[in-house]
Design a protein that fits this description.
Keywords: ATP-binding, Hydrolase, Nucleotide-binding. GO terms for molecular function: ATP binding; hydrolase activity. This is KipI antagonist. The structure is a single chain. The protein is mainly beta. The chain is 10% helix and 33% strand. It contains three helices and 20 strands. A hairpin with a 4-residue loop joins strand 16 (230-233) and strand 17. It is elongated.
Length: 281
């Protein structure tokens, strides 16, 4: 069991998402950065669908009440185990009574904590992913106790693994044309791919709104399907990138669609960070 001694800014339990229920209006949810979550699980030998803790901006203080193995990936939040610095992307044995803490955010925005065999918390509609109105809790709070399986410590092996985390620092967001892309003028398209856009303060697991606007005369569309990575253009010219907790339908023109790996890039950005859209042929 893992005890939340102190909650971070926004900690949740997530897996790869709640697929197959969108026709009921249920969001996909799931980890915002699939690459980081999959990496942490892989380094522990977990199934890729094993649930992880998604830690946003500032980390919690966690006390372990059984032996297990952990791995952190994604954002570097200066993690320590019993006040000793530990590294991301490394399998680490944890003993009963050990305390995991986090400090200064060095780079990135979301960190993922995997434990051997995953967190054994509530499942709803075949998923561990927390979402308000679907699961009992939508985020972790102080004194929460999270069931995990006891696991023996890994044996240290004389091997190293080179991790490509360059996506944490890039500002390039790869996109495909959206269903209504062809309605944009040549000038609008030029601006979309030549201008730098900044992440606004209105960013969450549901959507990222960008600061800069795009001159827009497009009319709303009949409510149509949307999914994580859909970029909507509002009548006021605002660009809204839908994220993992987004709604399942929308009435704004869908001008772009993010490549799946581009969602990982965007998930590690926060207010003020610049991005550039790059069109994939």
């Amino acid at each position: 069991m893992v005890e939340v001694v102190k909650a971070g800014f926004y900690d949740t339990i997530q897996d790869l998402g709640r697929a197959g229920f969108q026709h009921y209006g249920v969001p996909y949810s799931g980890v915002m950065d699939m690459y980081a979550a999959a990496l942490a699980n892989s380094l522990l030998g977990n199934d890729l669908h094993a649930s992880v803790m998604e830690i946003t901006m500032t980390g919690p203080v966690l006390k372990f009440h059984c032996n297990t193995n952990i791995c952190l990936s994604g954002a570097d939040m200066s993690p320590t185990l019993n006040s000793q610095s530990i590294l991301n992307n490394t399998a680490i044995a944890v003993k009963t009574g050990d305390v995991l803490s986090f400090g200064k955010l060095r780079h990135g925005f979301r960190c993922y904590l995997a434990v051997s065999e995953g967190f054994k918390t509530e499942t709803v509609m075949n998923s561990f992913s927390m979402y308000k109105g679907i699961t009992t809790k939508h985020k972790l709070d102080k004194n929460d106790r999270l069931p995990i399986s006891e696991s023996v410590a890994f044996k240290i092996k004389n091997a190293s693994l080179k991790i490509d985390d360059s996506y944490l620092n890039t500002n390039i967001v790869e996109v495909f044309e959206g269903p209504e892309f062809h309605h944009l003028s040549k000038q609008q398209k030029k601006v979309l791919f030549s201008k730098e856009f900044a992440i606004s303060k209105y960013n969450s697991r549901m959507a990222y709104q960008l600061v800069e606007t795009l001159d827009n005369t497009l009319k709303p569309i009949i409510t149509s399907l949307v999914l994580p990575g859909t970029v909507q253009l509002t009548p006021a010219g605002k660009l809204i990138v839908l994220m993992k907790d987004c709604q399942t339908t929308g009435g704004y023109p869908r001008v772009l669609q993010l490549k799946e790996s581009a969602l990982d890039v965007l998930a590690q950005k926060f207010s003020g960070n610049p991005i550039r859209f790059q069109l994939i042929d």
